[in-house]
Amino acid sequence: MDIKTEIQRLKKEKNAVILAHYYQPMEIQELADIVGDSLELARKSKNTDAGILVFCGVNFMGESAALLCPDKRVLLPAPEAGCYMADTITPEDVRRLKTANPDSTVVCYINSTAAVKAECDVCCTSSNALKVAKSVDTDSIIFVPDKNLGAYVASMVPEKKFIFHEGGCCKIHDKLSAESVLKEKALHPNADILVHPECNGKVCALADFLGSTAQIITYCENSDKNEFIICTELGVTERMRALMPDKRFYIPDTKQLYCDMMKKISVEMLYNCLKNETGEVVIEEGLREAALKPIERMLGI
Ligand code: SF4
């Protein structure tokens, strides 16, 4: 039996689609019907006719799909794959921040659990965070969990006061050093430096372009340049190498920019999940309603 052919057959038989984040291993991205970043996957999961969504990503992404699609079953091939950033904050932390800052709007980056989202007013992604922050009608914003994305947004929206959650960040992006990026730039002086805003402020300051995963890919597709230093998880770089074989992409620190949580899914795990319909995301209805509100508010902006 060829496992990849069998996955295609099972997909048809069960009316299932496979969604994969750009950080997934290339062989998983190649099997997916839809590949995207968090926002694209959240939007597209809502628009498909499939009865089953097999979600190749970390568990908060599966939760977001389940929140948006109560009429579909969402299956995770690796339900144990969490997100270091989402794990930096609890619902109690958000409640504490709200009590201390009662006149603030709570803006929650999509990289968070459903329980944390349920405590917040509006979600954002790295593509729309600026737009969301500008749209809120309070002078003060509690921005959780990512302090790096929050600091970038705060620098672009100086008219508002920002409150952050201590320690909230993605340890993969946050620990990329400016020195590694500069070393790569010295090797490739004509390359543009493209940075995801989850990186720390020193790396963001080096960027020729700062944007979400999807925005980084579009930038490279539309650029006249041929060389790029990519400061985000290395799955994105691998995808761009496949999409744009004539251009050159450099990873400033291969060890640091590898998210082990995103790399837990193998082709065999995907096959078993689809065949046995395991790893279903189940969210209690009260929590679903509360966590859906900030996502819908975001999608309406
Ligand atoms: S790269 Fe960071 S934010 Fe993205 S899934 Fe991995 S730990 Fe979470």
Account of the protein in words:
The chain is an alpha/beta fold and 301 residues long. It has three domains: 3-82 and 262-282, Rossmann fold (3-Layer(aba) Sandwich), CATH 3.40.50; 86-169, 3-Layer(aba) Sandwich (Rossmann fold), CATH 3.40.50; 176-250, NadA-like (Rossmann fold), CATH 3.40.50. The termini are far apart. The chain is built from 15 helices and twelve strands. Strands 2-1-3-4 form a four-stranded parallel β-sheet, with helices on both faces. A four-stranded parallel β-sheet has the order 6-5-7-8, sandwiched between helices. The protein has a four-stranded parallel β-sheet with strand order 10-9-11-12, with helices on both faces. The mean pLDDT is 96. It binds iron/sulfur cluster. Iron/sulfur cluster (SF4) binds next to loops. Iron/sulfur cluster binds at residues 58, 83-85, 111, 170, 172, 233, 259, 261-262.
Q: Describe the biggest sheet?
A: 4 strands, parallel
The CATH class of the largest domain is Alpha Beta
Overall, the morphology is globular
Per DSSP E runs of 2 or more residues, the count of β-strands stands at 12
In what order do the strands lie side by side in the largest sheet?
Answer: 2-1-3-4
What's the helical proportion of residues?
40-55%
Per CATH, what is the topology of the largest domain?
Rossmann fold
Q: Overall mean pLDDT score?
A: 96
Number of helices: 15
Query: CA-to-CA gap between the ends?
Result: 47 Å
C-alpha-based Rg, rounded: 19 Å
Q: What is the CATH-assigned architecture of the largest domain?
A: 3-Layer(aba) Sandwich
Q: In what range is the share of β-strand residues?
A: 15-25%
**Unreliable residue runs:** none
Total domains: 3
What structural class results from the helix and strand content? alpha/beta
In CATH terms, the superfamily of the largest domain is: NadA-like
The helix-strand sequence is HEHEHEHEHEHEHEHEHHEHEHEHEHH
The small-molecule ligands in this entry are: iron/sulfur cluster
